[in-house]
Amino acid sequence: MHINLNKNYKFKCINCGFESQKETFKCPKCGGPMQIIYDNLAWVVDSKIPSMWRYKSLLPEANKLISFNEGFTPIRKIFGVLSKLETNNPTGLYADRASSIIVSSFKNKIIETSYEEDFTLSLAYYSKKAGIKLRVYVMPDNVDPQDLIAIAKLGSEILFRNEIEKSGLEYENPYTIEGLKTISYEIYEKNPKVDKIYVPAQSGTLVYALSKGFYELRQMRKDFNEYELIAVKLHHANTPEILNYSKYRIKISEVSSREALESMISLSKRGFNLKPLASAAYALARIEGNGISIITGSRKISMSESKKYSELKRDIINIFSDNKKRTAYEIWLELNKYSLRGIYKSLNMMVINGELCEEPILKGQRKIKVYWRCEDSL
Ligand SMILES: [Zn+2]
C-alpha cells in the first residue's frame, strides 16, 4: 500500500557529534541529547492522511504504526492572534506527536519512564493502545494528582521513588524531536502569511524540534520562506542549553510572569486551560503581531467541572443510542444546551476512556472528526 522508501538514518549527538547506527537515546561519550539525521531528505507528503503521518517518509521507521491521528492541527485566530492549536491533539497535548512516534518505533514490550508533567499522560495513552506496558517512576512531591489518576486508569504501573533519579525513557529523546518537528512541516504546508513563529520554551526540546523541521525544509524546498523562530521563556527562567546547538537560528525572547498570566486569563475565556508558560508565546505574539503562537496544550477537565461533565456525558451517550456517526457540531446542535467547547472536551475524554470511537475525515482542507459508540462499549 504505502511507498516503501529506503530509509537510511543514524543517531547523532546534538552536542559532540558522536554518531551511531543503533538506536541511542543519550550520547555515551558526553551525555548529550541525540537526534536522528537522514541521509536523503525528500519532501514527500501523503496528502490523504489528516495527521502528522502524512510525512511518514520524513520520520523514523515505524515498527507498528500506532496513531490516533495526532498532528495536522488547525491554525486559528484567537483574539486576533494566529495560533496553532496543539490542543486539538488526541489527549489535548503537543506531546501526542512524540508519543505516537515513540510507541510506533519501540520494539520492547515495556517502557520505563520517570514522570514528567503532560508527557507521561500522553505516553500512557499511546502505550495502552500499542499494548506496551508503561512503568512510571513518580516522586510523590512532584506529581500532578489528576495526571496520576489518569495514568493509573490507563493501566500503567506506578512506582514511587523518593529521590530525583532520571531513568528509562525521558521526554527529550530523538523520537520526540522527530514527532515535534512535524509542526514546522505543517506550518510550511499551510503557508500562512506571517514572519514569526512563537514557541514556549522550558526544556527547549519543542523549539529545538521546530528548528530542526525548518532546517530540513530549507534543505528540501527551494520555495521555503524562512520564518523567524522565537523561543519564549518566562523572565526568571534560564535559557535552555539545547538551543545553542540549533542549525536554524533561534531568537530568545522573554515575557514577564504578569504578561503570561494575563494571557492565560484571557485565553481561559476561550476555553483554553493553559499554564503560564504555555501562554507566554501567545502573550508575546499578541504584543509583537504578525506571527503564529504555538498553543501547546490544554489540561483536561478539572475536578470542579466533573459533575457537569457526567451530565453531559450521559446526554451524549443517549444521543448515540441510534449508533449513527456524528460530528461534535452535530451533537452540539442536537443537545442545544451546552457550549461547543464543552462538547469537544467531553468527547475527547470519552474517547480516551474508550466510551466512544473517533475517526477523522477530510472536508476540503479541514480535518473533521466523527464519533460513534464503539461496539465493545455498548
Ligand atoms: Zn555527545
Structural class by SSE content: alpha/beta
Level-1 CATH class name of the largest domain: Alpha Beta
Q: Any idea of the CATH topology of the largest domain? A: Rossmann fold
Order of helices and strands: EEEEEHEHEHEHEHEEHHEHEHHEE
CATH architecture of the largest domain: 3-Layer(aba) Sandwich
Strand order of the largest sheet: 4-5-12-9-10-11
Number of folding domains?
Answer: 3
The overall pLDDT, averaged over residues, is 89
Poorly predicted sequence stretches spanning 5 or more consecutive residues: 1-6
Give structural notes:
The protein has 378 residues and is α/β, with parallel strands linked by helices. The protein has three domains: 9-94 and 172-295, Rossmann fold (3-Layer(aba) Sandwich); 95-160, 3-Layer(aba) Sandwich (Rossmann fold), CATH 3.40.50.1100; 303-377, Arc Repressor Mutant, subunit A. The protein is built from ten helices and 15 strands. The chain has helices at 95-105, 119-130, 145-153, 174-190, 205-220, 257-268, 276-288, 306-319, 328-335, 340-352, and strands at residues 9-13, 19-20, 34-38, 75-78, 81-85, 110-114, 133-138, 157-160, 196-200, 228-234, 250-255, 291-295, 326-327, 357-363, 366-372. It has a six-stranded mixed beta sheet with strand order 4-5-12-9-10-11, sandwiched between helices. Strands 2-1-3 form a three-stranded antiparallel beta sheet. Helix 5 links the parallel strand 9 and strand 10 (228-234). Helix 1 runs parallel beside helix 2 (119-130) and helix 6 (257-268) packs across helix 7 (276-288). The radius of gyration is 20 Å and the shape is globular. The model is unreliable at 1-6 (pLDDT under 50). Zinc ion (ZN) binds next to loops.
